[in-house]
Specification:
With 251 residues, the protein is an alpha/beta fold. The protein folds into three domains: 51 residues, lambda repressor-like DNA-binding domains (434 Repressor (Amino-terminal Domain), Orthogonal Bundle); 68 residues, 3-Layer(aba) Sandwich (Rossmann fold); 83 residues, Diaminopimelate Epimerase, Chain A, domain 1, CATH 3.10.310. It contains nine helices and nine strands. Strand 8 and strand 9 form a beta hairpin. The relative contact order is 0.07.
């Protein structure tokens, strides 16, 4: 029975894009364009594109995802962080997110916080180190500062199939929950205080906190406080406002 390889020359050589280009006698750029689906855009003939793809399949070439992400600025990975991924409630949400993500060519990194603030911060740091394209988070109390410090990529958010994105976390010092709302797809990078978003947030936090009267704070740069109440299928929202316009309409 043969033993393990004695030196690196005995190991199977990893196929690189350079090797493919050399074998087919074409440029590395040509191979890259074909693999990234840009053959027609760059007027590469169908025959050449087919020859490249056929050889790639034959040798089992797999692109270096790290190099690709550095080149394109995208990893096609989303971080999903919840209290406990084994919990039936979060598992159902995770399945729905994964289905949507896979349909768009994204993969998911799953994490559980176990309601531990230090663990949550470590996981957020890991997401940042891996340059994931986005997060889906259900975070424990004590990470308000992390929500406040979020720096969204508005161009990517605008490309999503959603009007707006909400980031929320438990509040502190008498505030039940905090949030931020981003809607670059409709021309609003970040809304200061968003009533419609709180219509969704109030039922969520009322169930999670076991109370129907809530003090909310939107922690956008301008921000504001809201006093909320859940009344069955309706919500009451009140707060302070500033008069910005006075006019008269005649019909």
């Amino acid at each position: 029975m043969p033993g393990p390889p004695q030196n690196r020359s005995e190991l199977k050589k990893k196929i690189l894009i350079h090797d493919i280009a050399k074998h087919l006698d074409v440029s590395i750029a040509t191979v890259s364009l074909v693999l990234n689906g840009k053959a027609k855009e760059k007027r590469i003939s169908d025959a050449l594109a087919e020859r490249v793809l056929k050889y790639v399949a034959e040798v089992g070439y797999k692109p270096n995802q790290l190099a690709k992400s550095l080149r394109t600025g995208k990893t096609h990975v989303i971080g999903l962080m919840v209290e406990d991924i084994a919990n039936a409630f979060f598992a159902k949400i995770a399945a729905l997110i994964e289905k949507k993500a896979l349909a768009r060519g994204y993969r998911i990194i799953y994490c559980s916080t176990n309601n531990d603030v230090a663990q949550t911060r470590d996981l957020l740091a890991m997401f940042q180190e891996r340059h994931v394209d986005g997060y889906a988070l259900a975070v424990p109390p004590g990470v308000e500062a992390e929500v406040r410090a979020l720096k969204p990529d508005f161009a990517r958010l605008a490309a999503l199939d959603y009007v707006g994105i909400i980031a929320t976390a438990p509040g502190t010092n008498g505030v039940d929950f905090v949030s931020r709302f981003f809607a670059p797809r409709v021309g609003v990078p970040e809304d200061p205080v968003t009533g419609s978003a709180h219509s969704t947030l109030i039922p969520f936090w009322a169930e999670k906190l076991g109370k129907t009267e809530l003090h909310a704070r939107q922690i956008s740069p301008r921000g504001g406080d809201l006093w909320c109440q859940l009344r069955g299928e309706r919500v009451d929202i009140s707060g302070y406002a500033v008069t910005y316009s006075v006019g008269e309409i005649r019909v």
